[in-house]
Sequence to fold (127 residues):
Amino acid sequence: MTKQETTRILSVISEIYPGFLKGRQPEYILEIWHRVFRETPYGAVDRALADYIAQDTKGFPPAPGTLNGMIRSGLEGEGLRDYEAWDMMQRSLGRRLGCKESGMLPREEGRQRETVRDFAEEPRCAL
Fold:
């Protein structure tokens, strides 16, 4: 998840739980949450947050570990969704090859395997 996406997650939390950032340093909270979720696809965190909010009966905001636990239990129960697997693979390849995250691999529905194979056959790729 990018810092911009992390900011969106924290904005949702702040809207639902107005006291979430009260007396805290927002920049520091952003940095911590981004470190925790930088390898996690935005969609997974967003879905876990929505589930948390829907099930919350006590009125307390979620901790990063709570959302991580929800994401992990969801992955164990149903496996990765295609877009989550694609995002994780793209980020991993980007780090390995030194490519920028966005736009590194085209996201063509139904052509992921072919796109990855074509990308891997290019000379710049040392898989």
Residues 56 and 89 are 32 Å apart (CA to CA). The chain has a mean pLDDT of 79.
